């Protein structure tokens, strides 16, 4: 399904990418394992129509790609889905279908620096800035008081959104968010932008797959995960590899230096935590001293601590799932999500 319109999309992407300065887009291979995509994922199709929000931020023109899926039988509520570091709006496909089927309008943006959105050469990345960008997009769309659902890095962003706009956030849902512990304070050594860039330029389909198998899917692998591996790997096979890697380095630095754990008690909106118990995610763990590594990324403990920290929050645990429960077992996750936000 994702490849059905790729040839047409790629010809359009050639023109767009040249205008945006991203260089020529390589022809997409019929084999996803060798396909190369443009720096804004030109050549890779999403399962829903992609729209663009053009705006000015930090004195430069940017565009933010997003999905806006309206239900056949609306219930008057909007769910906003915020993706993680190695994810895109498209990876919420199952949740978009489930939520829209339950009557929710669903808005799922690609944040600046990610996926089909702009990759600026110079940008002061912060969770506040990304939250402000998202708030501006929702204002343009006329969305008020959304249910904000964030996964992984998107969970950190969702928490900041609720902190910035508590009176404009109906509910907050955090799905295996990162930032629930301060890795630097626990002993992960400082990592420079140059180091992040060097690491990111080595990204390959194999490195993505191995990491995701270990953390996202609790050691299990299914072929249905492979398209999302190739989505990311295709960015690093494309002509915008350096551009993509530089933005990724800036984003890793943002994640490491802006943990949200200290502000959790300040969240005042109704909050639902959805935590895969076999998650072991801790960015920079591989660089930590041997005695520090075993202390990082214990989500059974982090989930419970977060539930205690956020006043009145509710915790749903998935005993056999890892960092991406919404992808490992979408049927169970979607049911728990829809039931959870209905209870409030």
Automatic annotation (TrEMBL):
Signal peptide annotation: 1-27
Domain (AB hydrolase-1) ranges: 80-183
GO BP annotation list: acylglycerol catabolic process
Keyword Ligase: no
InterPro entries given in the database record: AB_hydrolase_1, AB_hydrolase_fold, AB_hydrolase_sf, Epox_hydrolase-like
Gene3D superfamilies cross-referenced by the UniProt entry: alpha/beta hydrolase
Record bears the keyword Membrane: no
Gene Ontology terms, MF aspect: monoacylglycerol lipase activity
Protein keywords: Hydrolase, Signal
GO CC field: membrane
Protein name as it appears in the record: Alpha/beta hydrolase
Species this protein is from: Methylobacterium gnaphalii
Taxonomic placement: Bacteria, Pseudomonadati, Pseudomonadota, Alphaproteobacteria, Hyphomicrobiales
